[in-house]
Amino acid sequence: MVIYSCDVIKDLDELVGSLACDRVFLLMDETTASLCKPLLEGSQIIAKAQSIVIKPTDKYKTIETLSDVWKALVQGGASRKSVLINLGGGMVTDLGGFAAATFKRGIRYVNIPTTLLSMVDAAVGGKTAINFMGLKNEIGSFYESQAVIISTDFLKTLDAENVRSGYAEMLKHALLSNEKMWHRHLAFDLDHPDFSLLQEMVKESIHVKSAIVQEDPHEKGLRKALNLGHTVGHAFESFAMQRNTPLLHGYAVAFGLVCELYLSCNLRGFPENEMRSAWNYVRSNYGTFAFDCKDYKALIALMQHDKKNQGGEINFTLLDQVGQLHLDSHATREQIKEMFDFFTNV
């Protein structure tokens, strides 16, 4: 259930109050504890919740942090009737959802995403995970929240980079939808975002994702569409993590979209003008990702770890046209290297 809230305190108190829970826990990272928890001042639920505060950024989406959350739940007397509220970005909702999925074989949880990325991606759809051995979301589960409360008031706490990071997932959803939505997204001014317009676009974006998730909740078929840009993007993200130069998830997805649209042009006949439009928008708003031909082997090896792969083949979600998908596409190593050549040389 997704609640588009105009009064987040009222909606949170009513929702959690209806769950007949014995204890409430509030998971935050240090950033959301400082910037976002004050926006919930006055909530009766938050006033009685036990706070669990973890380190921020994807660097800490690890089994060690997960263990700290489990310990806090045990020490706080959590039972299977307890509720965990995840207040934060994708790192918090991913890790918090996995903690809820595994503690006592599953307790209830509520996501309150505070970043654009988590609103349109991580907090919706029931995918939970932690990073493991330098690999993005390597360990996780499908476990649905009781509800996701969307309040764009939290977006005003974001810096420009995090707005851009979330917007990359919205670009992906637009590509999966139709040309009208795609061109409207390409016209959005990320330098001077209109938050009232963005609120409507967020709702539309969540609707696209939710429709896909409802049809394929466990990623057996259509839900693979949501991996557009992610096969390459996750490799970029893991590669950057290994170099100790972390890359925001949405930036990795934006760069991955450009690469996979290039493959779509070469393998599926996707219109080159649309691919060039995507590349121009990404380059103008996200810059680029530095690597060279000596890194191709490592990037391909990271792509081979992708959970969508079968039989040793790297699986891509590609497009024939905007809104026309081709799942489980394959490319040769030479075609992948050519894709990297395009990205590094344009």
Q: What do these coordinates show?
A:
This protein is an alpha/beta fold and 346 residues long. The protein contains 14 helices and 10 strands. The chain has a 6-stranded parallel beta sheet, sandwiched between helices. Helix 5 links the parallel strand 4 and strand 5. The chain is globular and about 55 Å long.
List strands and helices in order, with pairings:
Elements lengths: L1 E3 L3 H10 L6 E6 H6 L8 H5 L1 E5 L8 H13 L7 E6 L1 H13 L5 E6 L2 H7 L4 E6 L2 E8 L4 E4 L9 H18 L1 H8 L8 H21 L14 H13 L6 H20 L3 H15 L9 H8 L12 E6 L2 E6 L3 H13 L1
Parallel strand pairs: 1-8, 2-3, 2-4, 4-5, 5-8
Antiparallel strand pairs: 6-7, 9-10
Helix pairs in contact: 4-5, 5-6, 6-7, 6-9, 7-8, 7-9, 7-11, 10-11, 10-13, 11-12, 11-14
